[in-house]
UniProtKB/TrEMBL annotation, chain A:
This is Aspartate carbamoyltransferase. Pathway: Pyrimidine metabolism; UMP biosynthesis via de novo pathway; (S)-dihydroorotate from bicarbonate: step 2/3. Residues 3-145 form the Aspartate/ornithine carbamoyltransferase carbamoyl-P binding domain. It comes from the Bacteria. Its EC number is 2.1.3.2. It comes from Fimbriimonas ginsengisoli.
UniProtKB/TrEMBL annotation, chain B:
Residues 53-238 form the Dihydroorotase catalytic domain. GO terms for molecular function: allantoinase activity; dihydroorotase activity; zinc ion binding. GO terms for cellular component: cytoplasm. The keyword Disulfide bond does not apply. Belongs to the metallo-dependent hydrolases superfamily. DHOase family. Class I DHOase subfamily. The active site is at D308. Pathway: Pyrimidine metabolism; UMP biosynthesis via de novo pathway; (S)-dihydroorotate from bicarbonate: step 3/3. Binds 2 Zn(2+) ions per subunit. Zn(2+) 2 binds at H182. This is Dihydroorotase. Zn(2+) 1 binds at H61, H63, D308. The gene is pyrC. One of its GO terms (biological process) is 'de novo' UMP biosynthetic process.
């Protein structure tokens, strides 16, 4: 059975649970040095139209652990940059007999289009401002490890919500799992109408993060300033930075997260980024395991991951990795 | 040759006529209509029982893509699609390649459309308002008018500079040439690909705010009011734009407007999972906009219905949403969609339906069309519509070269079944053979 991971929005709760459970299981096995079921003799294409070393390396690690072969494509210098349409690129890769695709593209919906024409599983590694489902799954796994649950948590997503695929995927995932979502940011960086996104909007940081269990900071793109969407980095930081002072509005055990790369001194100050409350490094590591889960699931592999509550308990138990993880 | 359309419902808004009767075409001219016409001397008799007999339909807004993009559509295929859609006169837009800004290009279009391979409908070209449609320097509008343009427009590249637009209106008023305006403030819409709203927020697509349309409509209406230039607002989509036009009409500005079936049928939600067939300009809006568009159709604020037939090849449409071109083909779906969505639902009476599809667009653009009155059109222009025919739109059964329609698979009620422009130029396969008697 072939499945696509195009967005969290299209996934059902039980599918999300299954992916998290698989991610936990993979992590446990790898941390404990046990074997992992392999997807042998499958080649997955890494199709990155937009550079992202972090995400690409994470997917390559995931594929490596699963015993898959990867084929790398980047847009520079290839036919993709020579006027070939995306559809033709995808059809070519299909006839190159690639078994699956991991795709990053700067346009929203590009992965959806690829899935229409590719024929094998497609995992979205970020499409425009639409979704970044594996980032959200990694973040959810991190929250599960640190909080033991998602249901009932109060999560504030802070920053440039309008242009953030991370914001959308996280909001869908965490709200589907029963968390309460607040989008916090200036009106200029927030979509006009948010009725089809799961969360409440708040423009004031102290109110928006009041009592929050988790704060997910979003990366601020400096070029938005040139578009007139905020006046200066200094003003943004003075209104929306997460630091010791502003963290006082959240719960004392509030988890601080960021998809990276961080603009230190803008979205977060150093103490907030490096404190015990910060889960930023765990997010990176967990990204690998949920990407394994996505590949495993997308390729229709069965046999692992049958019991979600147990998996959550297990997640808590492995939250302090003892073994050495190649990341 | 005497052709009798026998025993139908004659709907002619130009004479406020809604009667049961027959219509006689002799030597390509309408010669008589009314109840009790005798068919004894007719050569061919079409049994029109249960069907509407209307003036040939008039589409004020069609893209024929020639010269420049014959892979999307040609004048031949576009006019064939028009005939199949019940049209006898269509206005073709100037955003060809090169744009329609010289008299020789007007000649080319008129020649091509009159050639035997074409669909047999009249093509009334709309000229580019500025040279190269660059929004800066006016085209040679006097020469273009003499060559045969019926209006001027910069279509999808609307003039942004208000002074240029003012001068364009002053000159067009002098020439007695209507301006057709797609209204968009590009400083607000730049980079957008769908309505700015809940759906664009969800899909992560840059939106086009409704005010981009409304500000431009308001500016153009005010300039029309002050210059007295006749302004036709192309395909309105928001309730605010309709309100501006209503206000302009109240102030007695010479303003008219059209709507396309896309905009009164679909909301932004039709885009679903990035379906580029629903990428429209202006973008598909919301339920409240549709409700108020219907109200404005009903009360006459919206004067007419245009297909905005916008063909694009499949390789241009099967791309990421932001890269896709705007628009949908529409010549062969507009009547079906209009009857299904407006007539059978009571928004428009049959007579008003025909008015908006024929008589009014002909009046706005001063075309010799939109009437059944003998001698008022160069040749007989008559369309027969089966208002109750139920059918499913299949994009693969189309005369157009392109398949990019938002209406594929839609179940419709009402279809043009016969089109006469002089002689018969289209007879639908669903027009039963038993209805046709050849002498
Ligand atoms: Zn158009």
């Amino acid at each position: 059975m072939i499945r696509h991971v195009l967005g969290i929005r299209q996934l059902e709760v039980r599918e999300i649970e299954h992916l998290l459970e698989l991610g936990t299981d993979f992590k446990k096995r790898i941390v404990e040095g046990r074997s992992v079921p392999e997807i042998k003799q499958k080649v997955v294409g890494m199709l990155f139209f937009e550079n992202s070393t972090r995400t690409r390396v994470s997917f390559e690690q995931a594929a490596y652990y699963l015993g898959m072969k990867t084929a790398n494509f980047s847009s520079a210098g290839s036919s993709m940059s020579k006027g070939e349409t995306l559809k033709d690129t995808i059809l070519t890769l299909r006839h190159e007999r690639l078994d699956g695709l991991v795709m990053r593209h700067r346009m929203s919906g590009a992965a959806t289009l690829a899935a229409r024409f590719f024929g094998g599983p497609v995992v979205n590694a970020g499409d425009g401002q639409h979704e970044h489902p594996t980032q959200a799954l990694g973040d959810a796994l991190t929250i599960l490890e640190r909080k033991g649950r998602i249901e009932g948590l109060s999560v504030a997503i802070v920053g440039d919500v309008e242009h953030s695929r991370v914001a959308r995927s996280n909001a869908w995932l965490l709200s589907k799992m029963g968390a309460d979502i607040r989008f916090v940011g200036p009106r200029t960086l927030m979509p006009d109408t948010m009725t089809m996104l799961p969360g409440k909007v708040c423009h004031d940081l102290p109110t928006g993060i009041a009592g929050a269990d988790v704060i997910i900071c979003l990366r601020l793109q400096r070029e938005r300033m040139l578009d007139g969407l905020f006046s200066s980095v200094g003003e943004y930081a003075s209104m929306y930075q997460i630091n010791r002072e502003t963290l006082a509005f959240a719960r004392p055990d509030c988890l601080v997260m960021h998809p990276g790369p961080i603009n230190r001194g803008v979205e977060l100050d150093d103490p907030a980024a490096d404190s015990d409350q910060s889960a930023i490094n765990a997010q990176v590591e967990n990204g690998i395991f949920v990407r394994m889960a996505c590949l495993y699931w997308a390729f229709g592999q069965e046999g692992m991951g049958k019991n979600f509550p147990q998996a959550i308990a297990a997640a808590k138990a492995v939250s302090k990795p003892k073994g050495k993880v190649k990341a | 040759m005497r052709i009798l359309l026998k025993g139908g419902r004659i709907l002619d808004p130009s004479q406020e006529l809604d009667i049961a009767g027959s219509l006689l075409i002799e030597n390509d001219q309408v010669v008589a209509f009314g109840p009790g016409l005798n068919d004894a001397s007719a050569d061919d008799v079409y049994d029109c029982h249960g069907l509407w007999i209307t003036p040939g339909l008039v589409d004020p807004h069609v893209h024929l893509r020639e010269p420049g993009d014959p892979h999307k559509e040609t004048i031949a295929t576009g006019t064939q699609a028009a005939a199949a859609g019940g049209y006898t006169t269509i206005c073709c837009m100037p955003n060809t390649n090169p744009p329609l800004d010289s008299p020789s290009l007007v000649d080319f279009i008129l020649d091509r459309s009159a050639s035997p391979g074409s669909g047999g409908v009249f093509v009334a070209p709309v000229g580019a308002l500025t040279k190269g449609m660059d929004g800066k320097q006016l085209s040679d509008l006097f020469a273009l008018k003499r060559a045969g343009i019926v209006a001027a427009s910069d279509e999808g590249f609307p003039i942004q500079d208000s002074m240029v637009m003012t001068k364009a209106m002053e000159f067009c008023f002098q020439l007695d040439l209507p301006i057709m305006a797609h209204c968009e403030d590009e400083s607000l819409s730049r980079g957008g690909s769908m309505n700015e709203g809940a759906m664009s927020a969800m899909l992560g697509l840059k939106g086009i705010h409704r005010s981009a349309e409304e500000i431009a409509v308001m500016r153009n209406c005010l300039l029309s009011l002050h210059t007295r230039c006749q302004l036709h607002v192309m395909r309105v989509s928001t309730w605010g734009a309709v309100e501006m036009i209503r206000q302009a009409k109240y102030l007695d500005a010479p303003v008219t407007c059209e709507v396309s079936p896309l905009h009164f049928t679909f909301t932004e939600e039709a885009i679903g999972e990035f379906d580029t067939n629903f990428k429209a300009l202006p973008p598909l809006r919301t339920r409240i906009d549709i409700d108020l568009l219907l109200e404005a159709l009903n009360d006459g604020t919206i004067d007419c219905i245009a297909s905005d037939h916008s063909p694009h090849a499949s390789h241009e449409v099967d791309v990421p949403f932001e890269e896709a071109p705007f628009g949908s083909v529409g010549l062969e779906s507009t009547v079906g969609v209009t009857l299904t969505r407006l007539t059978h639902t009571g928004v428009l009476s049959p007579l008003e339906t025909v008015r908006k599809l024929s008589t009014t667009p002909a009046r706005i653009l001063r075309l010799e069309a939109g009437t059944l009155k003998p001698g008022e059109t160069p040749v007989a222009q008559v369309t027969v519509i089966d208002p109750d025919l139920e059918w499913t739109l299949d994009r693969n059964k189309s005369f157009s070269k392109s398949r990019n329609t938002a209406f594929h698979g839609m179940h419709l009620k009402g279809k043009p079944v016969l089109t006469f422009c002089g002689s018969e130029i289209y007879r639908d396969a669903l027009f039963g053979n038993h209805r046709f008697v050849e002498a």
